[in-house]
Amino acid sequence: MQKYSAWALLKEAFGGQQGWQSQWRRATPQPEYDAIIIGGGGHGLAAAYYLAAEHGITRTAVLEKSWIGGGSTGRNTTIVRSNYLFDESARLYNHALDLWQDLSQVLNYNVMYSPRGVMMLAHGVHDVQVLKRHIHANRCNGVTNEWLSPEEAKAFCPPLNIEPNIRYPVLGAALQRRGGTARHDAVAWGYARAADALGVDIIENCEVTGIRRDASGAVEAVETSRGLIRGRRIGVSAAGFSSVVIGLAGVRLPIESFPLQALVSEPVKPVMPCVVMSNSIHAYISQSDKGELVIGAGTDAYTSYTQRGALHVNSHTLSAICELFPALRRMRMLRNWAGTVDVTPDRSPIIGKTPVPGLYVNCGWGTGGFKATPGAGHLLAWTMAHDEPHPIVAPFNIERFRDGRLIDEAAAAAVAH
Amino acid sequence: MLIINCPYCGPRPELEFSYAGQAHVARPADPAATGDDEWTAYLYLRTNTRGVHAERWRHARGCARFFNALRDTTTDRFVATYRSGEAPPAIATEAAP
Questions:
Q1: How many structural domains is chain B composed of?
Q2: Which residue, B26, B32, B14, is CA-closest to B69?
Q3: What is the H or E stretch that residue A118 is in?
Q4: Closest Cα in chain B, distance from residue A377 (Å)
Q5: What CATH number should be reported for the domain holding residue B54?
Q6: Which residue in A123, A125, A215, A245 has a CA-CA distance of 20 to 30 Å to A236?
Q7: Sorting pLDDT into bands at 50, 70 and 90, what band is A412?
Q8: B71/A306 Cβ within 8 A
C-alpha cells in the first residue's frame, strides 16, 4: 500500500502527480474464499478489513452489486453519536465511537472524523424529561452527554432561534460533545484500500443471485452475476436489501425497507458549528467541510426499494429548519436523494449468527447505521471468525423477537427515525 | 407524491392517506395454542417484498376507511386497489413490470 503522508504529497507535487497508485485492485472473483462479505458498503468493507487485520482471514472477498459505498453509505447524513438509552445500545454504539477516534491513523486515510458535538433539542416538557433521562442513563454507562439551557444551546450554536414565541420553542438541549460527523465516502474508500492491501478482493458489479447450502444445511457457495464463488463463511451486510439477500438462504428477517431522504444546500461559509437534531419536529442539520448544509428528513410512510421519496417529507423538515434557523430561510437547496433503510420493529440492529450454519448477518441499522460503521464491521468480523457472537452483539440476535427481549430504542425515543 | 385510488372515493393525493403495512396478515385464531415461532411470525415477520406488494392503506383524511392495494416496491407504481375483505386481483401473481 502506498502510504499517504505530507512527504508523499510533497514528492508528488514535484513529480507532476503522476505517481499516485489505485487505492484498491480491480479484483476478479476467485473460485473459493475463506470468508465472503455480501455488500460493499462501509459496514461490509470494515468487516472485511477487520477479518484480515485482526483475525488473519485474508482470503476474503467483498461482493458488491454496483460500486462500493454507493448505497446507504453514500446517502446518509454522516452523523456520529452514541447517546442511546439502553445498556446494550450504549455498549454497542460507544464501541463504534471509540474506534472512530483514531480511525484515520489506523487506516492511513483521512476519514475527516470531526467531533464537533451533537445537540438534540427539547421542545416540550416531555422532551425535557426524556432527554434528561437519557443524559443520566448515558452517564451511568460512560457515554458523555450533558444538559444545556436554551441560552447555553444558543451560545454553542449561534444561528439557533431560542425565542419563546415560535411554535415549538427550544426549552433546552442534550449535547454529546464526542459526537459529530465524518466523511462517508472516505470511510468506505479507506476501509477498501486498507483491506485490499491485506489481500482482500473487492469485487464490484457482482450481484449475488443465490446462496447454496450443502446437505447439512450449511452454506457452501454463492451464485453471482460473475459466476459461482465457494465459501463456508458468509456475512451479509446489505442494509436495505438484507431481507432480499438473506431470503436467498431461506431465512426471514423482521425487517421492512423504507425510503429515507436527505438533501444539501448550496455551499456557504461556515455557519453551523455542530450537528443539531430535533426528534420532535424532525429536523437534522449539519454543515459539511465543503460548506453545504446537510439536512436529514424522515422516512416515507411506505416500504420501497426505489431509493427515492416524496417531496412533502422534505418540506416538513425544511419548515422545521426554517423556524429553528431563520437565517437559513433563503438558502437554496442543491440536491435531494433517498436511500433504502432496513428498519426493525425495535429500531435496534440485528448482528450475529442466523439459523443457517456459516451464514452471519449485520442488518437492521435502519436510519442510523453510519455512526456504527467501524463497530459493526469490527464485531461482525469477530463473530464470523469465532463462530459465536461477540459479547457486545450477543443481545442483538434474531431470536430476541421470539424471546421477547427487545432492545426497544423506538419506544425509548432515543433514535431519530 | 403518490396519487392513490381509494376504492371508495377515487384518486386522491398521498397526503390524505396513512400506510398500514402488509395486507392479509391474519391473527392466529387461538393465541393460547399458538407456538412461539408462529406468534413471532405474526407479530414481526413481514415479506418486505421487492416487487408487487399487497399492503393496507387507510384514507385517513377522506372517508377514513381501510382498503388494500397492490404496489410495485421497485417503482412505487400502484397496480390495483381493492376493498377490505376482497381477494387481491389476479394481477398479483404476475411478475413485476
A1: 1
A2: B14
A3: strand A118-122
A4: 25
A5: 3.30.2270.10
A6: A215
A7: low
A8: no
